[in-house]
Write the structure tokens for this entry.
Amino acid sequence: MKIATFNINNVVSRLAVLTAWLEAEQPDVVCLQELKADQGAFPLAALEALGYGAVWKGQRTWNGVAILARGMTPVLTRTALPGDPDKAQARYIEAAVNGVLVGGLYLPNGNPAPGPKFDYKLVWFEAFNAHAQTLLDAKVPVVLAGDYNVVPTEADLYPNHSYGDNALLRPESRAAFQRLLDQGWTDGLRAIHPTGPLWTFWSYLRFRWPKDKGLRIDHLLVSPQLTDALVDAGVDRWVRDLDGASDHAPAWITLDR
DNA sequence: ATGACTCCATTTTGGAGA
């Protein structure tokens, strides 16, 4: 069972990129972020033609999250994060697929920091961590996949960077992510690849992709019920090279179940 | 370097992303 997360950065204008990737890699479950599309503008028919069912929470212009499943429609359990301070922002969706509960998230970017956007990021993070703990307490198989907008360690971005105290690197952001891991979640990509670059994002600016100067901010966390089933993980870097690419590439894990 | 890319809406500038 291959589960992926992909910040598509507009699901309508980048439908050809999404289609090319789905056809080539055939992931079983996909969490999408930054749909940037109204609820009614989601390209369900095109995805169904590829064999995917979907549930989604749309929002015009910004945010928006979806969960796709190959050969079935995910069983929707939530379209909002409990305790989200701003209900208008579509940043969390949750659904069951083949006995695995999948949470798809688009954590607030938080820039500029400090400021109200950074405050919102930290409040959202705490609400998310609280919900993650309730999921752990349920002792069911869970994957939390999405754009966390956190670079966990200095090994998770290119050397000699100039990100300074960017909200993605701030100690408060990293500490919140570490508290999440400390609940008992396993970082799927790092568990399979303990060292080395695992970039999932390359800015459009300054030739970051041709220079391979990236960041790792898209993560898949697995609950203890699934750690033994985790057999592979990776980043589909080729998708970042397509014409009209998102600035993110899909990240994925494979579970033996 | 409030630079550069990319897209969109409150459109012909500016906001957001990270």
